[in-house]
TrEMBL record:
This is Transposase. PANTHER family: HTH PSQ-TYPE DOMAIN-CONTAINING PROTEIN (PTHR47326:SF1), TRANSPOSABLE ELEMENT TC3 TRANSPOSASE-LIKE PROTEIN (PTHR47326).
Length: 251
């Protein structure tokens, strides 16, 4: 009986083929189950799960909304009222918020390991601040981040207080970001879906090719398109109030 191991190059090629197949289906229909993906692709269910979980690319099945807890509703209402009032008082504020989700629209910046407090403070110190300084944005920009565990690190909050004074938005920040609210932040309700659709339509076989594709698509975004997306935030905050703090289904 022959027991020939598959060549390493062949295994890598199959990995990327399977990853792209699964991801394209998820981009088209984010609610597909792993069982359904396995059935449609002919890839074993355990392999599908491993592709999503262990690829190192953080390819996960996106959800249209996050399940809110009862205590989230008043926090979302308070945040929406506060930000709407600030937008009305400052016409330029919506264009001066750096919306982030483990990184910003400046970049891209690629994390090579788990995003913990140590990795996130490195992004802030070695990438975000120098980039903002290079574009003469320090002193005018507001930094926004969600409630990811890495953002809660003491060293992160100390850095933000020292760097942005009170001009930052986040959990326990000067402006308190409401939990489980990706529907209110530009990367989640607009950017990532758009980039994924473009990137995973390409034929990629290596991690470097994936990074290059992401970088190309982000750099291809026109300023007017980014501005329009950011200017949708006040409207979405009003929608949040109309829903009594409830979720806004992704458009």
């Amino acid at each position: 009986m022959l027991n020939r191991k598959r060549p390493q190059g062949e295994k890598k090629t199959r990995f990327w083929e399977n990853l792209q197949t699964v991801t394209r289906l998820l981009v088209h229909d984010p609610e597909k189950s792993t069982r359904r993906l396995a059935y449609e692709t002919g890839i074993a269910k355990t392999t599908v799960q491993r592709l999503i979980k262990d690829s190192g690319l953080r390819v996960t099945r996106p959800t249209r909304v996050q399940q809110l807890k009862p205590e989230d509703y008043p926090k979302r209402i308070q945040f929406s009222n506060e930000m709407i009032a600030r937008f009305q008082a400052d016409d330029n504020l919506v264009d001066n918020i750096m919306w982030t989700d483990d990184g910003g629209i400046i970049g891209p910046y690629f994390f090579e390991s788990t995003v913990d407090g140590k990795a996130y403070i490195k992004l802030l110190q070695e990438f975000a601040r120098p980039s903002l300084e290079q574009h003469n944005l320090m002193g005018t920009i507001y930094w926004q981040q969600d409630g990811a565990p890495a953002h809660w690190a003491k060293v992160v909050r100390e850095f933000l207080n020292q760097t942005f004074d009170r001009n930052w938005i986040g959990s326990d920040g000067p402006s308190n970001w409401p939990p489980r609210s990706p529907d209110l932040t530009v990367p989640d309700f607009w950017l990532w879906g758009r980039i994924k659709q473009k990137v995973f339509a390409k034929d990629m076989k290596t991690n470097e090719e994936l990074k290059a594709a992401i970088k190309f698509e982000i750099e291809s975004l026109c300023p007017q398109e980014i501005t329009r997306a950011c200017q949708r935030v006040p409207h979405r905050l009003k929608r949040c109030l109309e829903n009594d703090g409830g979720n806004i289904v992704y458009e």
